[in-house]
C-alpha cells in the first residue's frame, strides 16, 4: 500500500527531515492530517529538533492533540525527554500544561521524574496546581524524590508549600531508617569464613601439648542429624583414636 501525503509528512517529521517537511507543507499537505496510525506530524515529531517543531507550529499544527493510545501530548513527550527549547516553543504556541495523560501525569510530573529542572521551571509557570497528584497519588516532587533527582527536588522545595516540605522530611527519615536497619542486619550476619577460622583456632589451642602421634591420629568426622536437635546443620566434633 502506497503512503499518502500525510504519511509522508509524518515520516519526514519523525525522521527530523526539515527540508522534506517544508516541501510537503508548501505543496499544501494538511499539517493536522492524520496518518495511518491516527497521529499528526507534530505528535510524531523529533522533539529535540527545535527548528522542525517551530516549522510545524508556524504552519498551524495543533499542539494539544492527545495520543489515542495513552493520551500523551507532544508537550508530555518534550518534557519527559528534557528538550527545554521545544517545551518553550510549544507553550508559546498554546500547548496546555494542565492536560493529563491516561495515568494522570501532567507534563510537570514527567519532567520532574526524569530530572529536568530547566523544563520544570518552564512548566511551573503554566501549571495551575504544581502539587496535583497523578492516579497513583504521587506529586511531581514525590516522583523526583523517589528517583533521586536532587537538583529538581531542590528547585521544587524552594517553590512549594510547607506541606511538601513535610513529605520530603518523612521521606528522607524513612531512607535513613532503612539504611541503618540494612547496616545493622549486615553487621549481625554471621560470616561462614569467620566461623571456620574461630573453629580452627579453638582446635589448634586444644591440640597444644599433645604428642606428634596424637596430633597425627586426630581426625574430624561429621555427626548425623538427629531429630529434635534444633539445628538442621550437621555439626563437627573432634575425636581421638584410641
Automatic annotation (TrEMBL):
It comes from Tetraodon nigroviridis. Pfam families: Ank_2, Ank_4. The keyword DNA repair does not apply. Keywords: ANK repeat, Repeat. Residues 216-227 have a biased composition (Basic residues). Residues 178-242 are annotated as: Disordered. ANK repeats lie at residues 70-102, 103-135, 136-159. One of its GO terms (cellular component) is nucleus. The lineage of its organism: Eukaryota, Metazoa, Chordata, Craniata, Vertebrata. The keyword Repeat applies. It comes from the Eukaryota. This is (spotted green pufferfish) hypothetical protein. Signal peptide: none annotated.
Amino acid at each position: 500500500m502506497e503512503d499518502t501525503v500525510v504519511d509522508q509528512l509524518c515520516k519526514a517529521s519523525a525522521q527530523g527531515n526539515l527540508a522534506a517537511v517544508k516541501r510537503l507543507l508548501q505543496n499544501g499537505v494538511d499539517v493536522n492530517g492524520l496518518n495511518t496510525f491516527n497521529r499528526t506530524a507534530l505528535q510524531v515529531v523529533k522533539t529535540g529538533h527545535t527548528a522542525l517543531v517551530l516549522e510545524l507550529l508556524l504552519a498551524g499544527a495543533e499542539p494539544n492533540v492527545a495520543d489515542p493510545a495513552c493520551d500523551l501530548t507532544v508537550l508530555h513527550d518534550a518534557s519527559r525527554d528534557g528538550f527545554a527549547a521545544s517545551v518553550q516553543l510549544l507553550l508559546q504556541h498554546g500547548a496546555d500544561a494542565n492536560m493529563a495523560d491516561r495515568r494522570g501525569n501532567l507534563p510537570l510530573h514527567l519532567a520532574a521524574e526524569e530530572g529536568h529542572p530547566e523544563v520544570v521551571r518552564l512548566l511551573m509557570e503554566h501549571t495551575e496546581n504544581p502539587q496535583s497528584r497523578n492516579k497513583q497519588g504521587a506529586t511531581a516532587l514525590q516522583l523526583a524524590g523517589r528517583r533521586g533527582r536532587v537538583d529538581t527536588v531542590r528547585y521544587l522545595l524552594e517553590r512549594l508549600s510547607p506541606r511538601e516540605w513535610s513529605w520530603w522530611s518523612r521521606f528522607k527519615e524513612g531512607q535513613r531508617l532503612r539504611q541503618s536497619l540494612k547496616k545493622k542486619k549486615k553487621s549481625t550476619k554471621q560470616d561462614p569464613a569467620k566461623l571456620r577460622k574461630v573453629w580452627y583456632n579453638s582446635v589448634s589451642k586444644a591440640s597444644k601439648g599433645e604428642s606428634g602421634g596424637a596430633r597425627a591420629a586426630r581426625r574430624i568426622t561429621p555427626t548425623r542429624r538427629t531429630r529434635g536437635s534444633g539445628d538442621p546443620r550437621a555439626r563437627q566434633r573432634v575425636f581421638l583414636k584410641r
